[in-house]
Amino acid sequence: MNEDTESGLAPYARIVADIRSCIDTGELRPGDRVPSTREITRRWGVAMATATKALTVLRREGRVEAVRGVGTVVRRAPTTDPVPADPAGPVAETSEDGGSRGRSRTTPGAERRPHPEPHLTREGIVRAAIAIADDEGIEGLSMRRVSTELRVSTMALYRHVASKGELLTEMVDHLYTVDALPEPPPDDWRRALEVALLGEWEIYRRHPWAARLTVMAGGVVSPGLMRNAEWMMRVIVAQGNTPDEALEILTIVSAYTSGMALQATRVALEEHEIGMDAAQWWCHRGPDLHRLADQGAYPTMFGVSGPPDVDGMFEPGMRRLLDGIAPLMERTGTL
Q1: Where is this region: Disordered (predicted)?
Q2: For 230-246, what is each residue's pLDDT tens digit?
Q3: Which of 4, 67, 195, 273 is the 20 to 30 A CA-CA neighbour of 291?
């Protein structure tokens, strides 16, 4: 990509100009995949919102389009070059006599007009929102972003989903419904809880944004999420525990899963933001770490061989946790 800095342009506009230049020169041809938002954040050193804005401008110009299962690609018939502008704002069009008349920035290319709405469904909206969150993070998700992806007006979404909060709830519900736990649960309580915890871990690893929605204060409450909790509590109550005792145990094991998921998500986000994995980060920060090591105050910390592998730690850690709660499950111990 063109690395030249164009003076006076906002960061998103510079990215638009660079990608547009690659399209104009033929470096990126029709059908070629353009950098994703994650790749843009790494390559240009910008925030996710800036990367999303840049791709939105290119879509509105008619230069790129989203293709399910592929990503954002160069359109087969790109439009002419409009001046980079805030995709959310109106622009002024100068008349022949030198005055200006308002013109709404809706779709710079006619082919970018919204589709008729009969094809729009609640499930389709939820699936599109999940795909956006998977690719761009939950920060990149908005009703407007979903409407752009589906090529409908934003107001059309509200006929199916009342608010962004309702959309987030439906997204989480979809994940827990698609990956529903088996009925009946395994007879062995350890095996049953392993199935539940590993299943939830897989959801969080495939959709890292979900952990934040299910564990933070004010998180979503959905039927699918409640069914998951009910399933686990039934397993625990079947061992002779009361519902209150089952909730205590559920809180412990769920905190382990969600906490590890948030840690893994944070590591992944940092890798995307700084463009290096944990091991590379340790090497990059070598001089700083060596200065601390030379102080001699942290011999245990600097006795490790490398950064932890959160994914590799999850399953063995889960088994040790289940060992620890065994007395609670059998009520031979107390909290």
Answers
A1: 75-123
A2: 999 999 999 999 999 99
A3: 273
CA pair distance 44, 288, nearest whole angstrom: 25
Tell me the pTM.
Answer: 0.61
AA identity, residue 15: I
* DSSP string covering 193-246: HHHHHHHHHHHHHHSTHHHHHHHSTT----HHHHHHHHHHHHHHHTTT--HHHH
Q: Hey, what domains does the chain have and what are their CATH numbers?
A: 180-329 (1.10.357.10)
pLDDT digits (tens, 9 = 90+) for 226-282: 999 999 999 999 999 999 999 999 999 999 999 999 888 766 555 544 455 556 666
- DSSP code of residue 301: G
- With beta carbons less than 8 A apart as the criterion, state whether 219 and 213 touch: yes
Phi, psi of 218 (to 5 degrees): 80, 20
